[in-house]
Amino acid sequence: MTQDPDHAVELLWREREREPRQGLSLDRIVRAAIELADAEGLAGLSMRKVADRLGFTTMSLYRHVPGRDHLVDLMRDAVLAEHPEAGAGSDWRTRLEAVARQAWRLRRRHPWLAEIRGTRHVPGPHAVARYDEMLGALTGTALRPSEVIAAAGVVARFIDAEALLLVETQREERRSGVSEQEWWGARDSLYDRLDRYPALSHLWEAGGWDHPEDSFEFGLARLLDGIEALIRRRDEIRDGTCGECGTPLEPADSGRPRVYCSRACRQRAYRRRQTG
C-alpha cells in the first residue's frame, strides 16, 4: 500500500501526547520497532512482530500508525534525535566533519537506517534538523547556494553508501556463518587467474591489500579535500574578479566581498539562474 505523504507529515510533526502509564501508544510502538530492526534489520520488521513484542494484536497497532512505511519514517526520525548537535566549530570543515562522524556513529548503532531506500520518505523534525546542521556548516563559505546543497548531498550519500556496505557485509556473515575475511581468503581459484593483470599484480605484490585504508575515513577526508579546493577557488573568484564577466573587482566601500562588478552583471546572473 502506498503511504499518504500528507498523513506522514502529520504523524511526524504533530506534538506527542503524554504517554499513558498502561496500554499502547505511538511512542511505545516506535521504540519496539527500533529494537526489532536493530536486532533483525528492516527485513525482519513487520507490524505483526512489533505487536507480538508489545503483547498486543496486530490490528491494535493500526489505530496508532497506518502501516509499516509510516512506522519506518517514525523510527528514522526517532533515532535521529539521538544525534547530538555538533555545535559551532572553528571552521566549516571542523563542523562538517563532526556532523558526518556523528551520522556515521548513528548508522553503526542502527544499521537499518542505511536500508531505507527511495527518494520520497517524508522527513520529520529531527531529520530536518540534522540536514540543517550539515547545510549550516557550509553556509557562509564562498560556495554558491546550489553548491552548498550539492556538497551536503554528496557527503550524506557517501555516509549512507558506507553504511549500506556495512549492512550487506554483516548480513552475508550472519547468513553464511563465515566472516568476510575468511570468505575472500579462500578464493585461491580466483587469485590464481589474476597474474595476467599488471596493475592489480603490482599492487598485490607491493602489499596494497595487507593493510587496507579505512574506507570511511579515507573517503570522508577526500570528499572534504574536494569541497575545500572548491571553496578556495570560489574565494579567489569572489575576491578577485566578477562572477559574471570576469572583470577585476575594485574593493567595496563597505568592506564586504564583492561578487559582481556592476548591477547589470548581478541582474544577468540572476536571470540566468532563473531560466537555468
TrEMBL record:
The keyword DNA-binding applies. Residues 23-83 form the HTH tetR-type domain. SUPFAM superfamilies: Homeodomain-like, Tetracyclin repressor-like, C-terminal domain. InterPro entries: Homeodomain-like_sf (IPR009057), HTH-type_TetR-like_transc_reg (IPR050109), HTH_TetR (IPR001647), Repressor_TetR_C (IPR004111), Tet_transcr_reg_TetR (IPR003012), Tet_transcr_reg_TetR-rel_C_sf (IPR036271). Residues 46-65 bind DNA. Transmembrane segments: none annotated. PROSITE patterns: HTH_TETR_2. Pfam families: TetR_C_1, TetR_N. GO terms for molecular function: DNA-binding transcription factor activity; transcription cis-regulatory region binding. It comes from the Bacteria. One of its GO terms (biological process) is response to antibiotic. Keywords: DNA-binding, Repressor, Transcription, Transcription regulation. This is TetR/AcrR family transcriptional regulator. It comes from Nonomuraea terrae.
